[in-house]
# Entry
Amino acid sequence: GESTSTVSTFAEAIAAVRAADDSTAKVITLGEGTFKAADANTFRIDEPNVTIEGQGSDKTVIDTESYAVSGQAGILVSADNVTVKNLKVTSTNPGASGGAIKVSKIGDGTTLPDVNDVTISDVVITTEAGYGLNLHGVKNAVVTNVKIESAAKAAVNIANATDVAITGLETGKSGWGTDIMFSYKEGSGNYNKASSVTITDSTLANNVIVTERPSTA
# Structure
């Protein structure tokens, strides 16, 4: 019942994924080597039920270079039930407020729809701008054994996120000297929902977790 095909670029693989039925489970298996974007939308993961897996963070690299999906991410996950695992992600400029990997949909300023059931595991991240990992508007996210070697802002940014489980996070150099930031903006439906996050068995280089939420919120 399974259909498989071999292509030479990630752009071809994601095109095939987008052409498939939403309800179908799709797996993009990357071999050893470095995979780069063909354009700003190559690493827009907007199809549900997708797994992107490499051969290990020391063997498979997604290099988004200076491409930024919607000006906010090297890899932008905006669909439900997406898994990214066993690879490394590098980004030169994913957008000043974005992330090398960002999980988010586009809100209207009043409400921000959730991205549901996201898994990021055994991934190494390094970026020269923005955050390493940005979870903005997620529900039921599992982050396991993720190493963020360097980020320009905080290693991890979290906002409007419910039921996030982080295990085995390792952070490195942060331009802000911050491991985890909880973003907040007064009066913005994109930022003012309280987040619920559990962090276990993690090594934080700066031992700094910061929230922008005031005590009145």
Summary: The first strand starts at residue 26 and ends at 29. The chain is about 5% helix and 45% strand.
